[in-house]
Amino acid sequence: MSNAVMDKPPVAAPSPGSGALKQPRLPRWAPIGMAVLSIAVGVGTGLAAGLASRIQWGLIAAAFFVLATYALTTAVEGKRQAKDRLVTSLVWVSFLLAALPLASLAWETVARGVKVLDGYFLTHSMNGVITLQPGGGIYHALIGTLEQVAIATLLAAPIGLLTAIYLVEYGRGRLAKAVTFFVDVMTGIPSIVAGLFILSFWIIILDFGYSGFAGAMALAILMMPIVVRSTEEMLKLVPNELREASLALGVPKWRTILKVVLPTSIGGITTGVMLAVARIAGESAPILLLVFGSQSINTNPFEGAQSSLPYYVYEQWQLGNEASYDRAWAAALVLIAFVMILNLVARGIARWKAPKTGR
């Protein structure tokens, strides 16, 4: 190789700030500005067209936001960035369309439920209360819900936990496939089917009466597959190295599961159980068939009719007067608060029991 070629200095690469690598970009405030403009266009179009529904205004604004963002980005940044912003806009619009009904429902429930929600409402029943007049409370329904959900949890949680342990740790062959199949089938059955099964078996065939325990058995059927699936996934997350290390020390498999596998996954298992409890707390179809409802306080779930919060909401709304409507909204607010508390407890347990990282 000649000296001329060897002595030739290398070509300098363009600096990051040079004009050759600079690409036109929309300012950071462009999405916010486009959203404000879209809202203005939606409101203006709705008023000009005489559209009374605010939902129609929102849909017009959402469509304008997506199309205008794509057109503006194409003109400034090119088609490649425009496609990225188009997908991002669709994600945000879909999120808002899904969140707005939830927010509206929560606002409506709180606004109408706080009218009669007080200490008296929580500590009195509907026994002897004229339904056309204000008064009464949900104490009997609250007691019924707590007892029925507790019994369903005591029935479903151990069975679901042991089934999941079998599927993950021992399950092989046709039996494991059959159990997995039936768990999948039970996950999708309607709640009314579980209620009809307990009605035909417990009340019609065995000739037991309506009770909170009958409703709890139907709720346990609905809860069981959720516990199985959530526990199964948590057990699969436990590293096999932990099992192998315990077995290498001569520890029996059952003790390895009890002392190593379950403590490692206890946070996720508890979270799954709490979410399953929140799932069944609002069920009304099995309660209508099996618990039968009651206006008075019944603290014995094994004998006599008993009420619950979902049944109370249905019962009060069916009466069709202003006082019963207020009681129904207040009971719905209490039920939502109960489910939210369960979800917060589940998140707290999951964070408390989560594996610690770092020092």
Question: Describe it for me?
Answer:
The chain has helices at residues 3-6, 30-49, 54-77, 79-113, 119-123, 139-170, 173-187, 191-205, 212-236, 240-248, 253-281, 285-290, 309-319, 322-353. By secondary structure, the chain is mainly α. The protein is flat.
Number of beta strands? 0
- Overall mean pLDDT score? 85
Question: What pattern of helices and strands is seen along the backbone?
Answer: HHHHHHHHHHHHHH
Largest sheet: none
* Uncertain spans: 15-20
- Morphology: flat
Report how far the terminal alpha carbons are from each other: 58 Å
Instruction: Please indicate the percent range of residues in DSSP E strands (runs of 2 or more).
Output: under 5%
Instruction: Work out the helicity level.
Output: over 70%
Structural class: mainly alpha
Counting H and I runs of at least 4 residues, what is the number of helices? 14
What does the radius of gyration come to?
Answer: 30 Å
Brief synopsis:
The chain has helices at residues 3-6, 30-49, 54-77, 79-113, 119-123, 139-170, 173-187, 191-205, 212-236, 240-248, 253-281, 285-290, 309-319, 322-353. The chain has 359 residues and is mainly α.
Give the topology, please.
Elements: H1 3-6, H2 30-49, H3 54-77, H4 79-113, H5 119-123, H6 139-170, H7 173-187, H8 191-205, H9 212-236, H10 240-248, H11 253-281, H12 285-290, H13 309-319, H14 322-353
